[in-house]
Design a protein that fits this description.
NAD, alpha+beta, EC 2.7.1.-, tRNA 2'-phosphotransferase activity, 6 helices, RNA_2'-PTrans_N, NAD+ poly-ADP-ribosyltransferase activity, globular, Arc Repressor Mutant, subunit A
Length: about 180
């Protein structure tokens, strides 16, 4: 499978497993899973023929490890705008986590902290390098350091997805430090 096809399939999966399953007639179960056969059939009916081998390839090769296959099911690991319960247990975060953004968002972040926006959680990276890549998707990256240890001590709940993305409901501005 060439790189262009891999990216195309990955974007298709993100759109339909995270944001718009109903657009192609899919119904995710409460934890976000869908039968692979149902996904393949729905995609074919909507002009995007997929094979199981392509799905397995995208799941294995996706640099962000956005998806998981479990037997005959597939789901996105996080980032949903549709309601799902990923059944993640609360976890103790490292002392610091990181969030990549761009300068145009800083005034709002300073005022309101980090909010999930259309998603269910704020996404945090375990290292500066990952946060830099995340921020770079929208322009010149700015990396914020999150005092996750202090947040946790103060009662904020953290989850960690299967691909190592840390999730929390919000990050108040008091726990943020700018790192360029």
């Amino acid at each position: 499978m060439d790189d262009r096809r891999t990216v195309k399939v990955s974007k298709y999966l993100s759109r339909h497993l995270r944001h718009q399953p109903a657009r192609i007639g899919l119904t995710l179960d409460p934890q976000g899973w869908v039968a692979i056969d149902a996904l393949i059939a729905a995609a074919a009916l909507h002009g995007m023929p997929l094979t199981r081998a392509e799905l397995v390839h995208v799941v294995a090769e996706n640099d962000k490890q956005r998806f998981t296959i479990d037997g005959d099911r597939i789901r996105a690991n996080q980032g949903h705008t549709v309601r799902v319960d990923l059944d993640l247990a609360p976890a103790t975060p490292p002392a610091y986590l990181y969030h990549g953004t761009v300068a145009r968002n800083l005034d709002a972040i300073r005022a309101d902290g980090l909010r999930p926006m259309a998603r269910h959680h704020v996404h945090l990276s375990p290292d500066r390098e990952t946060a830099t890549r995340v921020g770079a998707r929208r322009g010149r990256p700015v990396v914020l350091t999150v005092d996750a240890g202090a947040m946790h001590r103060d009662g904020h709940v953290f989850l960690v997805s299967a691909n190592g993305v840390w999730l929390t409901d919000a990050v108040p501005a008091a726990y943020l430090r700018l790192r360029g």
